[in-house]
Amino acid sequence: MSFRAAAPDAIYYRVEARNGEEFKVSRLAIQQSEVLHRLVEAMGYTLDDVEMKEAIPIENIDAETLKLIFQWCEHHKGEPIPEYDLGFVPENVVIPGFDAKLMDIDLEKVFNLMDAANYLGIKQLFAVSSTKANIMLQEEERAPQEDAAQEEAAQEDADAENGEQRISVSAYLVDKFHRFLSFFQ
């Protein structure tokens, strides 16, 4: 009689998104999620009964976000889990190439990914997606300022060609000047 030991990665769990779409996720990949890992351990899945059990429902995460989550988990399966508390983001987070490519999505989707990573207890993905969101927000803030500076430079160039000179005065100085003049009235 031969006893066949299953490799730890041989078990695949079925996870169901809010809209009913199912995903198969390897045991090693699920270990990246503290929440899912504890859940499957508590449910006592075995290689023999994993296919017979119902899919694990995740009611508040859509299929598009879960797909990204599980792609990330499968790519990073077997990697050590960070020791810091969830919600904490280290100061210097490097976004590896795979993660950067995975998060080449709009800001709303990055926020969904960040929220789902937090909910599922995926520390490293939370840190990376938080960093990505921060970078995107900084770029968003910088873009209008750069556009305004470019428009102002273009206007100054046009004025210079016409022999005009424009002086920009801040609203603060204008207000201060008006208050100063009011003393003499």
Automatic annotation (TrEMBL):
Source organism per UniProt: Caenorhabditis brenneri (Nematode worm)
InterPro entries: SKP1, SKP1-like, SKP1-like_dim_sf, SKP1/BTB/POZ_sf, Skp1_comp_POZ
UniProt biased composition (Acidic residues): 148-162
SUPFAM superfamilies: POZ domain, Skp1 dimerisation domain-like
SMART domains in alphabetical order: Skp1
SKP1 component POZ domain: residues covered: 19-77
PANTHER family per record: SKP1
Protein name per Swiss-Prot or TrEMBL: SKP1 component POZ domain-containing protein
One GO term (biological process): ubiquitin-dependent protein catabolic process
